[in-house]
Write a structure and sequence with these properties.
Strand 8 and strand 9 form a beta hairpin. It is built from 13 helices and nine strands.
């Protein structure tokens, strides 16, 4: 595949020269025609000096020469040899041209800027990768905690593994970004259904008989449940804190589990409201398959219950990732 370097425009201090310069592999590159313009020498003279540089062993040709696509005056594109800054400086000394010094100073500054910028970008990507792996480590820690403290059935254990397996899909995002293969998955921002306290209580009452008709099931201990519902619609300066439906669903599950608003049935209520919210917003099924199956939902609910509040953002990312991990 042809090399596609970054391009910079060089102008001499007296504006007598204007060159399109390629930046690649932490150096700059000019072809023979450009060297001829820079040093005000004919191409034959430039070619003679380049050949002498290689013949005398001053520089290794395979290291300092690269082949870039170049558009010629006829409008056609050709593969043309380009020479890096080491060659440019060496030719400059041989032709005794002051322009070589000016170009070297410009190139050194541009490369310094380029490398600093590149370092900043790479450092940011490294931090993002470390953050991703930190989240994965936290998720694994929660899985171990749940597995160690709960007497899980085989299906629940499978659910824990599914949560972990699906969450690790997110770890390839940075790699796909670096290779320009990342497609941003669209989240749903327009809600079809907005959950209210009255409807939620009605749904919980309907579940009571399913779970044995206990008078404690769904009995509110305090006023925290309405707060859990309102929290998913929080705004700041008129903008939703949780803009997508997926984020609202994830926070709904998290808040209802963690706020422990009921005398009995907190996890079951949280799970059913989560499923209900997704279904009413047409997000529960993808091609007739639940986006989060029952076992994974059980595992998620247990993980949230066991998690440290400081891990809230990580847990929400796990849930959103599972919803959007469409096969």
């Amino acid at each position: 595949m042809p090399i596609k370097p970054q391009v910079e425009l060089y102008k001499s201090p007296d504006n007598s020269i204007e060159l399109v310069v390629n930046l690649d592999k932490e150096t700059v590159w000019l072809n023979r025609h450009q060297l001829s313009q820079l040093f005000d020498r004919d191409i034959k003279t430039i070619g003679k000096h380049i050949n002498n540089i290689f013949a005398e062993g001053e520089l290794q040709q395979e290291v300092v020469v690269a082949n870039f696509a170049t558009t010629a005056a006829d409008g056609k594109t050709y593969q043309v040899d380009h020479y890096n800054l080491d060659v440019i400086i060496s030719v400059g000394y041989r032709v005794k041209s002051g322009r070589g010094t000016q170009f070297r100073q410009w190139a050194t500054q541009r490369l310094r800027d380029y490398l600093v910028k590149g370092y900043a970008i790479n450092e940011k990507r490294l931090q993002e990768a470390e953050s991703r792996f930190g989240e994965l480590k936290s998720a694994i820690g929660l899985l171990e905690k749940v597995a160690g403290t709960k007497n899980l059935s085989g299906s629940e254990a499978q659910g824990l593994l599914k949560v972990l397996g699906d969450f690790t899909v997110a770890l390839d995002i940075l790699d796909r970004y670096d290779h320009q293969q990342l497609n941003i998955s669209r989240s749903i921002t327009k809600e079809v259904f907005r959950i209210t306290y009255e409807e939620a209580i009605k749904a919980i009452e309907g579940l009571k008989q399913t779970f044995g008709g206990s008078q404690l099931f769904g009995k509110e201990k305090d006023s925290s449940f309405p707060g859990s519902l309102l929290a998913i619609y929080q705004t700041f300066d008129g903008i939703d804190l949780y803009p997508s439906v997926e984020e609202k669903a994830a926070h709904l599950l998290y808040f209802v589990v963690k706020n422990h608003s009921f005398a009995d049935g907190n996890k079951r209520i949280a799970a059913i409201l989560f499923v209900w919210f997704l279904e009413r917003n047409h997000l529960l099924y993808d091609l007739e398959r639940k986006v989060i199956d029952d076992n994974a939902l059980v595992a998620l609910t247990l993980m949230i219950a066991e998690s440290n509040p400081a891990s809230k953002d990580m847990m929400v990312k796990v849930i959103v990732n599972l919803i959007n991990n469409k096969k």
